[in-house]
Give the backbone structure.
Amino acid sequence: MTTLTFSIPADLWLSANQRLHWAPRAKRTKALRELGYFTAKARRAPRFDVAHVAAFIGYPRNGKADPANAAPTIKALIDGITDAGVFPDDDSTHVIGPTYLRDPKPETPGCYSVRLVITNQEVPW
């Protein structure tokens, strides 16, 4: 099992509910993908052939939240982690999930936090 933690400022956050123009959305996606890549490299994350990813989302404020709306952010981070060689590919034969869960308290006040818990899995087929 490996845990990668990210602190993401609001100006980089992507949500399924946002209606951003494609250009700023692409810049955020690129920045998040690079964040995933460099974090995985810096932490020397091991390689997984098949893994389950649990994404714990921490919000800057208390209140209602739908963690699954963080899918665009998580997708970009997982793409970067895949670029770093942690997964052979981020398709459904190598990455199970992600499962979206709420993290009760973010790491850095005023920022979103993402904690990806990657657990080795036996091939289910």
Summary: The domain at 2-120 is CATH 3.30.1330 (60s Ribosomal Protein L30; Chain: A;). The radius of gyration is 14 Å. The longest helix spans residues 22-42.
